[in-house]
Fold these 3 entries.
Entry 1:
Amino acid sequence: MGIILEKTPIILNKIPGGTIALTTADFFINWARKSSIWPLTFGLACCAIEMMAAYATRFDFDRFGVFPRPTPRQADLMLVAGTVVKKMASPLIRIYRQMPEPKFVIAMGSCADCGGPFYDSYSVVKGVDKIMPVDVYLAGCPPRPEALMYAVQKLQEKIGKMEIKENSGATAGQESGARREL
Amino acid sequence: MPIEEKTFEKPLELDQMFVNMGPQHPSTHGVLRIALHMEGEVITKAEPDVGYLHRGIEKLFENRTYTQGLVLTDRLDYLSSMHNNLAYCIAVEKLMGIEVPARAQYIRALVSELNRIASHLIFFGTYGVDIGAFTPFLHAFREREMIMDLFEMLCGARLLYTYMRIGGVAKNLPEDWTAKCREFTGFFPKRLKEYDALLSFNPIFMDRTANIGIISKEEALDWGLSGPVLRATGVNYDVRKFEPYSFYDKLEFEIPLGQTGSTWDRYYCRMREMAQSAGIIDQCLEALSKQDMPPDIIAKGVPKILKPLKGQAYGHIEASRGDLGFYAVSEGEFSPYRMHIKAPTFINTAILQKILVGAKIADVVAILGSFDIVLGEMDR
């Protein structure tokens, strides 16, 4: 099933016809979650091309269970691939709020991290973390597809540490879509 | 100002509808928004709404020196960075009266054509996805990765190269590069035939695209279109032929023309352009390997800090999407007083509001995709 047994809190018991496995709910839910991260097909600028390259031949993102979805209602990861400008900020927040919980954000590329080469532009939002919570920051202009894979693996690590809590266990303020003012 | 539903003068009738396409839509190739007014399935009014990627690049040029400004040009049309670099360098070289050595000129033409193929391959792949065929996407990216490898050997970057410099290019061709490039150009024409069998002459694809989005010659000229969108209507205009730069006058190639100006013609013009580009690359490699050219002189020496005299210059080239121009105005300072970018996609997209009227809603994506828009360049 793709579970590495050495790292798993699991009790195995052989019975006729198969094996019974006993494990924690945390582990099981996290395993399911991190093995099928579905990002939103959503490109803003240059990084979107590297994101497409990651989905395509040679890099084949499907190996990680990453499969792009065109609608936010079926997605649990938003790859902010590119420059967020002020006009795009409000549609971006709206899309983010349409995603079901638990939801994650990867800020891909220098523009989404901090403004990048447009650090002194009048119309660019200097970092997408000013408008929504970010889980993984990925530097590069644009980052290579391999770097994007590394970011997704980091996100999987993070998801692996989530616990069942009263809130979703994701980044603070995520479920309410809370944001700082621009 | 954003176009909102409340701009209607009177309430909508029973069969009227307002459909908002974008800015997050998988087929807008970025963040274009089109406000569609419809009656039943037929579009009565289409309003493209641009500016979702307006990064203020033209203004930023005024705060950068001429050398620093080069980095910003990559981020305009990010699918064909080499063309942006080249157009900018040509404009600044004209402003300063710099002459570029022959080797650099050939290398510039060579990498531009490689980049044109890479850019058209993205068009081929994503247009297939728009129409509902996913396989061309995988095929196109397989070949594109070969070009990306070549560019990576050349300048270390996969997408945004900043390879050209004012006065020449940054680095000479590395060892083994020529052989690897020849391998690609030998392999690529066979692939083009495969693409034709896979998508171009596929009856379903042709039915979807051949009779929609028709632009006449007169319309195309009136709206100031350029690039494959113009040539698909049958107008023979290509900057490479009519105002040659980078030794394009010494290279032999044809300009593929369309006949009807339909969506399929625009698509097929690009496919045939790729074959021509592969031919140009071969000729450039041939010319570069000749003995009469000094192998090391790849750039003209320019001062570290450029300070052109007062004046203005316009440099334009044939980029993947059309006639890309940079208009530089210097007041004798370290940075330009004004740098205007004449972006082909911005001008090409304007005609959408005319040709989308009367089309069916199902054809919108097919027509829009055939324009091969890049929002970074459109919104700047």
Entry 2:
Amino acid sequence: MIVVENLVKTIRRQKVLKGIDITVQQGSITGIVGRNGAGKTTLLRTIAGIINPTKGNVTFDGKSVYAFPEVKQNIVFVPDTTDALKQYSIKEIVSLYGLIYSNFDSEYFYSLLRRFSMKETGKIRYFSKGQKALFSLILAFSTNAKFLLLDEPTDGLDVIIKKEILRFIAGEVAERDVSVVISSHRLDELEALADHIIVLKDGIVDSHLDMESLKQKYRKLQVAYENHLPDGLKKHLDILHNSGRVYIILVPSDDEETIDLLQKSNPLLYEELPLSLEDIFVAKLGGDSYAS
Amino acid sequence: MLPKALWKKEWKHVSLIAWGILIIFLLEYPFKASMKIEEWKEEREHYVLDWEWNNFLIHQMEYSFTASVFTVFAVVLIIVLAGILIGLERSSKRHDFSLALPFSKRSMFLTKWVLGFATILFSYTVSFWLGYLVLLRSEYGYVLTELDVTTIFFAPLAAYFVIFSLAMLIGTIAGDMRSQVTLSFIFLFFAQGFSIILLHFLATHGLIYFDYVLPPFLQDIFWPTYLTSMNIAIADLIYPIIGGVIFFIVGMLLFEKAPAEHSGEFLVFRSLHPIFAFGILISSALAGGLLMTTMISFGFTGGINVLSYWIGAIVAGGFSWIIIKRLLQISK
């Protein structure tokens, strides 16, 4: 279990993380979402022990990652590029990882390369961008570490390789005793993958959500009126989209009073639409920069 | 025991320059010794008297172990080696990769330092003794008994030790390889250089006489002196050894404290910015004043001298201020 306690990080006199408290359980996929500059990468780099916190601590099974760096045998950080390894051949990388991570499984590593029809020799600098991303994940999963920290693993990749990577992550977590923490601004990807979502906003945890219960918390409705949505209702709901007299709105499922008022306001159209994670974030955090 | 994984990781990046250092030392010692022997064979006919010839040979033997152009290359390569070990990593994605590994920062620094110094020690020792053997097995080998070989061997080694440790220390505060290498060269000469420009300032303004001499301790800590064993006693080597040990310990402590979020900037410790800004400004102004008085008003005294000093100081200070602003802008 990774426990992040009251993590504060100040960079250039600006508080990037303002007291983060989170716990990542074994065998889960946790998505960290937030706008650009919300502190996602800083949080992951601090958990990985790359940067030291100004205040607070990160522990793995009760041991601080800063005081006992050897616990990082079980916390592998996967950055958004493979530049650190570009000078190495695959053989050299396997040899190096075998020395770094005591549980590194080279047979499993090569079997994954074969599964994805990737070259088993040569330097990774000649791989395509998608292959490099996949290679990083294969390498990380082959360490048999208990926690993987993935920083924007699908950023800039085409749809096909992106789906392949997401399927691979989901498959690995289901089959092996591994937990994954993924930072992303792509809600659609995390929606299909994550068990928990941590929303970072301006350096603090805005919400920590369980995906199972999240979608039951809200209802997405499409309503249309002869003139416009009654003003008295507007303060009780979030308008996701408005086109003329048609409104797509978000209402808390337990707010029966608002739902009752909506139904009694004589809408020309009243229908429930399938709810996505993106709808909740757009409504609750504002803007549409979470889903690009 | 330092982790094998770190050795392997570091060696991957320094192997090329390690070979470069070995080649330079091979040129410096065995190659140079072979060339000297050929030279002496031709020189022999110019000497009639045996005692003259012997004196010549003793001096030549000393010169064959003295600093040469290859020594300058060796110093440059050693500073670049330290730059590759610390600075180059900091300005690349390798830095995140390294710091995310399950090893302490102390073992990372120790591996870098030990690998770097072992490269120097091995290359130097092998080359030196190969050179010695070449001379010993030649017809002039008997002259080697006239030399203090212990000092001749250890003096340059102590100099390389202190220069490498200094460059590694600078690496812990510098944000990338360019700033590390530049600052390492500056700090190699800083204490003496700054003293000279400061004393010249005082002399120009009539506060001391122009025939000033540098305090002896500044000569003791002028590390390039030890690159040659000429006029150096074995006991004098205590200064570079103590200096190297201090730089090593301070470097290790600072490496552990260095904030990774400022890697790639000019300096990683932002608290040093005002000190460096002030230091560069003052040093440049003093150097500008010295240059102006020695080039323009050399031989003049009094008012003209002071006026030209201040013109030089203001111009150099102004330029340096522009450079300082640009340098520190990298860090914003």
Entry 3:
Amino acid sequence: MTDISRRELLLGLGVTALGTACRAALPDCPVCTRVKTITLDAPHPLDNVALVAERCQLFAFDEIHTEKPTVYTPTSIEDIKSIFREAGKQGRRVTVRGGGQSLDAQSLNDDLVMMMSDKFSDIGCIERDDKGFFITTGAGAKWWNVVKHVAPYGLMPPSLATAGWATVAGTMSADCVSRMSPIVGKEGQQIRAFHIVHPNGVDGWYCREDKDEKGRVFKAVIGSFGALGAVTQVKFDLMVARTNPGVFGDPPCVFTRSTRHGNAIDWDTTLRTLQSKTKLNGDRFKVNRAAHVGAKLSKSELQKKKQLSADAEHTEAHVADDTPELARTPEWSALSIVSFVNGQSMSANVLEQRYVDSQPLRRLYSDMYDADARFPSGAELQIPLLPTLTELGIELGFPEGEFVDELLGWSFFLHNSLNPAKAAAHRCGERLSFTQQTFALPAGGDDGPVDTRPAQRFIELLMARVHEADIRPGDIDFLYVPGDEFLMSGSYRLTAFVITVSFAEMNRPAFTPEITETLRALSHDCRTLGGRVHLVKGVVADPADLRVMYGDAAVKLRDMKKTYDPMNILRNDFFERVFNA
Amino acid sequence: MRTATFAVLGVLSTTALASAADPVAPPTTADLDPLPPAGIKDGLVYLREQNDVFRLYPHAQVDLDAHAFYGVGTDTLTAQQAGTDLETRFFLRHARLDLAGELIQRIFFDAGAEFVSNPAIDGARANSLDTKIAISDAWVKLDAGRSLNVTLGVFQAPFSQENRTMAGDLAMLERNVATRGFITPNGKVLGLALGGSGQHDVARWDLGVFGADTTNTIDYEPHFDAIGRATFKPFVNTSSDVLRDLQLGLSARVGTRHPRDVTGDAPAITTGQGFAMWRPTHVDAAGQVMHVIPSSTQWAAGAEVRWPFCRGLALRGEGYWVSRNTRESPEGQQSAFTSRLGQMSGVGWSAELSAWPFQMANLIAPVTPPRSSPHADHLELARTTFSPERRGIEVAILAAGINATYDGASRGGPIDPSVGSTTIAIYQIGGAFNYWHSSHLRLSINANAYLTPGSGTSDNAAIVPGTLITTADEHRVVEIGARTSVMF
């Protein structure tokens, strides 16, 4: 509580002025429908809690999963504690909900839902120490607003979900994976500290440097979907995104180099290239970030930097003289492969992207990274209706080349295309359902040779299954993500090729059996290939497969819950379904 | 069952609890070896480049047939008189080599040759005595997605269900008399078609323009045709097992034949074993041999239904109205002189009930349904589900017919007084028994009775062997055929 007040004071004194300047520099979030929320009658409130209770119909972002819980919107830590206290006494179940951007039922519960989005959304001032830039925000701060706040200072969150209305604590509790994760790690790795209120009445800060029990809790809260408490504040790293970081000015742009791979892709070479570039740029990121903050490099870091410089010179020597300056700098912030089904085959674009100083835009032809463009949202609407048209459009509109796009359009491209598409569907009385499921396939050890065989076999099985079921995925994304140490993370100690498959449907009460059975079969394939289904997005999998993937981690989490949530108050539909709680 | 499942899961969970250790990723139990560069899957032989830049699917078919004819005149007419050999005999019916393939998984092709093509059965000529080497397929398809593909070359015209089903997938040995002899003779055309389908074939469409076809399997004559077919599965997304695969379809074609370009005979109507029951030649009152030649507007339209309403049991049928303008020219002057202008028109129809008894009795896993298109599907090499081999016994009964008229002078020119009848009425009643040892070996026996009520009189212009014997009052011919097919 004290921390919030201090930050509010700081905001009131100085940062508010900067925030106003930021708002002038960047546009407001475009019309966002979020998720349909329908207020209903007859809430079932807790006794002895002096807060307004509403009964609402809440949807997940996929607009498939829905519940009608009693909703509380706490305004203070004391409110949260009182809700936990009374829920425990009365045997009720509570789920913490942020921006409602989860693709599955992670933020749904048919009993009590605690909305964190409105009263815990303050954004602090940018700070800097010997480890670099960082910021502290409320749990409910939306990423769109965070970016809008920090980008004019040439800073960006290292890993950033593409959902602008997702909240800081929401994506943290899912340990989200993004296009930047291959370089900077998943979102959990940028978290310096957070403040959490446990259902047992204890609250406090947990930090990245904590050891023993606090360290274990720190790693368990990240990626555990609110199973251990309600996070109220988060302190996380910022990365340098342009020259003169920390000085107010124009927000950076994003340079994209798109390398087209037509049909009959050599996946082994392509994935190996992704892996090697990711490792190289990941190392560079670590070294350069330290350099930005003026930290003293260790002997091994200095040696590594020397080697990287030599690599860079070697790369530069092979760049043609007429290559634009932008393309000559071999350091990337985001590396991914975006792939599409075309006919019986797949095409893919390797996307190398990085922040650059503000400059005239050279937009991607399809305007996919234009926050105001209508074409991408129109395409999203067409995916479930006319997939071939979309596939042809992507074939033509996602070409090879080098592009410069605006920051917000690139950062939240899925938000910018999907939300207007959903809004358009709503205006017509329709419902656009969208889901993604992410699979982590082992890629060999961090320091050992890369192994693309599991990912290749998964691609073969994926194509066979979607053709067999006669379904057309929207897009299929590939990342190379180093292993992490967060308990419920899909890449917990598993360096992996992370493959995300998207599907869209129109006006369905549930995804079709073809989609669910395909995802279920792919989850099993993922298991037999030694991988895990990410719990971040939608999860359709047999419980037996999930037990093999997460059984031990779930037992450890359950042990922690016995300490921090002894009454098992914090539950959500997702965990109850996925782990048969 | 549900309780038992939860009990098992509970035990597993308890086991996991007891052995909870540091979480590790699941062990890899799947086969990680690369897909082989050559092999056989789903009955298709393949050779491939490791990234599938190209794939080749060589395939071949050899059919050894036995034909027998029963009925008045079948044991007395010579082959020259009948236009086909009516003796009981063994012979090579098909010897076919094809090379199909894919390029960059987007471009598909198939090119093949039939070394013993029979112009009377594979085409629509009255004479089946000489076999020829003919193109069986020669097409390229660009696949732009489920809803759009472009096919160019020589391929089966997108018209009629029976015509679009690969002959090897039919229960009978040959296409029925209505399809082969009247609705879409020969069936192969040269041109370009656009096609596509919706999810689960809820709708499928093909539309093309074609510049040539042939009735003798080798000589393609130039013309212009627009041909289209659309099929619908209105209940494919319902839970009804009975109705789910019900397919309805419409086909239409329209075109013209110019006397300068088209001098070949109009299609003859032949039995499945090659006897021509209606011939596009006759001797007029002046003793000249007159040839009936397609001329001016040709069109046809109709509907089809296919209803696999029970495991292993399917009903299919179709009916088309056909209208062909014709001209008659004396032999030797087909390109220079037209004696009269006429028209052939009428209905061709067929209905077939087929069954796989062992599959119906759940003794054998259900067979893969016949492909509705002659185009090779993309082969997925990764094994996902068990694909049952085509195996077991298939039986079928068929009825087909042609109820048409041919008036050689209806559009102009003097009436030929030698013409006895303008009515053509032909009916086929048949049965088939097939034993599929696999998709590579098939043993078949067919029996077909062709009925031509009133033939040899002014009531019916169709003929059977008995009609060619002036004293006979015979209106039927029975054909028994057997085949051993080896294919890959």
